Amino acid sequence: MTPAETAQVAVDRDQENLKTTDASRNAPPSPPTDDQQAEPYYKLKAVLKDTRVQPALHAQYCHISTAVPSSNLLLVLCANVLTIFDDFHMGDHVAIVAQYVHEDAEEQTTMVSATWIPGAVSSEVHSGSPRILLALSNGSLAVVDIIESQVTQMFDGGFDGSGYVLLAAPEAWEGGKEHVCVLGGNSEASVWDVANEERVSTIEKAVSAVAYVDGALVAAYEASAGGGVGRYDVDGKALEASGCAVLDGEEVDSILPVGNNACVLRGEREFRLWDMEEGKITSTFKLKDKRDQSEVAFDANGAVAVLGTDDGDGRVYDVQSGEEICEIGVVRVSSEVEAVAVSNDGRHIVFAAGSGFLFRFLKT
Questions:
Q1: Distance between CA atoms of 164 and 166, rounded to whole angstroms?
Q2: What is the pLDDT of residue 115?
Q3: What's the rounded Cα separation, in Å, for the pair 276 and 141?
Q4: What is the enclosing helix (H) or strand (E) of 11?
Q5: 6-45 burial, b if ≥16 CB within 10 A, otherwise e?
Q6: Which residue in 300, 292, 225, 316 sits closest to 256, CA to CA?
């Protein structure tokens, strides 16, 4: 079977799974009974090794609702290799749906960030098929089609690729607008039209984090810009003030959507669940000791949060209550958790650690 055929089978299978999804799979793990205290909620299912021996920069399950809402397609990004796994079979046999190797010996550019984006609105060829947007260290943006396993677009994104770069995309494009947000290393956040390869708008304040939450763009401002969080429409125009202030003087360094018009604001010491409709924080959670957290991820339903640490272990939390559910960790690898991903149904957790190791945990 060719890579294109494998990719199409994975997409078709995930669409078919929507008809038979068990609602109970979307619920967070239940508190243990006295007889279940010793039984872990998540068990280590498989350890995978990337033969290219590269630390992972990013891991993310497909979140595109219009294409494959319950998809277990998983992207893992390294400096010059992007791999798409079919996590439905990970552990039984490793199905690599697609792999893109970035080779640029002349300019020596690398990939620095990635995110899933919906299929193109204006093209029947990509209709319903998720794609991936890549940010390169030279400030370029590239679109990878996982069916064709190749780059279909590349253009100048005008951002600083030498520092931290974050890409954000909505679950679905509405009104025929293929817009994404790019946060460059200079703290400048811009909205881009992917189809027309042009900048739509730029947020005037210095930004520390961005994310799309139920179609609206949410941006956290750096402390030097006064802190706080703002909301914007699809064109990057500011919406009415949200009423959410800085976290006790902390700067928000990441925003993680958890569905139902809510998101988690990650500060230096705490994570807070923000209900945007009510304009208030509804729960707070943090690591129970002082070890540094390295990565965090949430399932699409906002049921569980997974925190990875510099010591190579992690904890699973109930998002609504902020209570710790269980501990999990890597084995035989002395490394911090480089990347964390949680499947949309909350059943699968992936840790990336060391030089190319993936640890996949399954909900029991």
A1: 7
A2: 93
A3: 31
A4: helix 3-17
A5: bbbebbeebeebeeeeeeeebebbeeeeeeeeeebbbebb
A6: 300
- Report the side by side order of strands in the sheet with 81-86: 58-61, 73-77, 81-86, 95-101
Q: If you search the block for the tokens 């200079």, which residue do you land on?
A: 186
**Pairing status of strand 216-221 against strand 229-232:** antiparallel
Could you count the other beta carbons within 10 Å of the beta carbon of residue 100? Answer: 22
Smallest CA-to-CA distance from 128 within 212, 218, 201, 68 is with 68
Rounded Cα distance between 74 and 258, Å, is: 18
Give me the pLDDT at residue 36, please: 43
- SS3 state at 15: helix
Q: Residues 6 or more apart from 334 whose CB is under 8 A from it?
A: 312, 354
- Structure tokens belonging to residue 96: 């690599």
Instruction: Give the per-residue pLDDT at 17.
Output: 44
Contact criterion met (CB below 8 Å) for 59 and 357: no
Three-state SS for 186?
coil
Q: 275-291 in b/e burial notation, b at 16+ Cβ within 10 A?
A: ebeeeebebebbbeeee
Distance CA 97, CA 83 (A): 8
Q: What is d(CA 133, CA 69) in angstroms, rounded to the nearest whole number?
A: 18
Asked if residues 203 and 186 have their Cβ atoms less than 8 Å apart, the reply is: no
* Beta partners for residue 15, in sequence order: none
Spans of the chain, pLDDT less than 70 = 1-40, 50-53, 65-71, 87-94, 105-107, 121-128, 240-250, 287-294
pTM for this prediction: 0.81
Q: Could you tell me which of 218, 216, 154, 223 has the C-alpha nearest to residue 189?
A: 218
End-to-end CA distance of the chain: 32
pLDDT of residue 122: 58
The 10s digit of each residue's pLDDT in 235-269 is: 888 876 555 555 555 678 888 888 778 888 887 77
pLDDT in tens, 80-112: 889 888 866 655 555 778 888 888 756 688 999
Contacts of 213 (CB under 8 A, 6+ apart): 255, 257, 261, 262, 263, 276
